[in-house]
Amino acid sequence: MSKILLFVNDQVAFDFDKDMPLDESQLNFLNKMDSDMDKGFKINGESFPNPDKQQRAEFTAMNLIRGLQQENEEVVVVSCAYISNRLPEVDEVHVNDLESGVKVEFK
Q1: What is the pTM of this model?
Q2: Domain tally, the chain
Q3: Within a domain: residue 107?
C-alpha cells in the first residue's frame, strides 16, 4: 500500500492511502479545486495570481492543516487526494511552524 504521510512539526499527523481509487465525481471536484485556484490566492501573505503546480499543492497543504485543526476529515481527505493526484511522486508532506510563517515541504 502506497501512502502519503503528513508531518506537522516533525510528528506524523495523518496518513492517506494513495492507492484509493477516485470516482468521476471526486476527480471533477479536484478539477473544480484547480479552477478555483486559477483565480489566484495568498500563502503567508504573498499573492500568487497565476499559481503553478507546486504553489497549488502548498495552498492545498495549508487547507489540509486547517482541516486537521478543525477536525474536518472531509477537507483532510480531499486535500490529500488532490496532492496525491496532482503530485503522485510525493510520499511525505512536511508542515512546520516558523517565526516567519508556515513552511511546507514535499518529499
Answers
A1: 0.92
A2: 1
A3: no
